[in-house]
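chain below, 305 aa
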Amino acid sequence: MIKQMKYFQAVVRLQSFTKAAEECFISQSAISQQLQALEKDLGVKLMHRERRKFTLTAAGEYFYRKSLVIVSDFERLRVETLRLAEGAKKELSIGFLRHYRGKELKAVLPAFQAQHPEVELTLFVGTHEELYEGLRNGRIDVAISDLRRAPSDEYVNFYLTRGYLYAEVPAGSPLASLSSITMEDLKNTPAILIVSSENSAEEELFFREYLGTKNEFLTAENLDTAHIMVAAGKGYFPIEFNMPPAPKEEIRYIPIMRRGQQIFREYYAFWRADTIKEYIEPFAAMLKEEFPGDAKSAERLNEVE
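prediction:
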């Protein structure tokens, strides 16, 4: 009956027998037969059919809502049973930076889980140094971070994307009228960093050495807080995009330049070269596909951290 429930859910969700049949990889006549068999087993009518259209009965509405919970519970039960049957628990711990907005990761995680239901995912968020330490001590299997250290053959480096730096400022700020800006222009405006207060020193040092930042710093625990601080006129938020950001009414994104070029950072998926987990590289490859292309080669590099 679980399979029949899935067919029924697909028809309701897509509002089409044809689309549901395509999604479930069966014929339209077969999916109709399965739903008729489901109604016969239940002894109730789940939907009223009128030519190419249908509407759910009151019983159908109720069954649809409850079946979503039942199928979700069954899938979780199936995965846990599979893990127990295979013995050793398969896990993948993924670390990512505090300032990462997570669009690509949110897209790839369900797809990865569908392909590898036996793998339990754990997520870890931190600064570059926290992610590096997590890789070193084995707490993290793969880290999504920027490249800051000299290459090392102890780690695998898998290129993901290039992030171009912008200053996020309120639309009402005088800075918002500029088409581009430099760190010299921003020296009297506090920079907002997403980092806990106890780990702020290392991030501040990086921004001063890598970006040549001369201003003072303010800290925010997360992205939402950083955006609110910008709106309140507390400072500017250095934010990165791999594609030009869409304009917004209340804020402006100004490219931050150095010697006539927009400043950028490259991001990679890192993992220890001695890690024996066959699903790390497939995960990294799936994640790479979610990022828009750029001029950087997408080939795998076999040295770093």
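Residues 139 and 242 are 28 Å apart (CA to CA). Confidence is low (pLDDT under 50) at residues 295-305.
thats it, cya
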